[in-house]
Give the backbone structure.
Amino acid sequence: MPTNKRESLIYTIMMCFLMVLWMSMYNVALLQGGFSIEVVRQSWLGLPLVYVVAMCLDWFIVSKYAKGVAFRYLIKPASSPTMKRVMVSSCMVLPMVFFMSLYGGLEACFHSGEWTRLPIIWALNVPKNLIMALPFQLLIAGPIVQKLFRKGFPEGKVLA
């Protein structure tokens, strides 16, 4: 886990990139009915804007409240690092899925022009994204980013 604000920013940049890339590919694959090189291409082309939106949501809105909920209701300071990581990650994924599913719905309505369908698209996207995002975050993205983060930025090397 990051130990100061700079480490937290670097960690968030890495985690957000991996999660946004994966979830973009997942959502495009759902729309196209399968995974292909075209899915990767479309996801990569849309990545910059989605990434900026996700980073802003994560850094300025979700992170503060998610950590607050996790440390106030779910874990104690004496909890194990693994438990802290799992609880904070879970508390981060839930609102991010909520907001980013809205973003996806807005994007779909923008392209189709069918704005009246936004509530339905959003409501259908939230559970589809949640069943992919939470396990991916806890089992794949979290461990990968942690390992890369600590390998690239050993504890105590990034100054506060």
Q: What stands out?
A: The chain has one domain: 5-152. The chain has a mean pLDDT of 95.
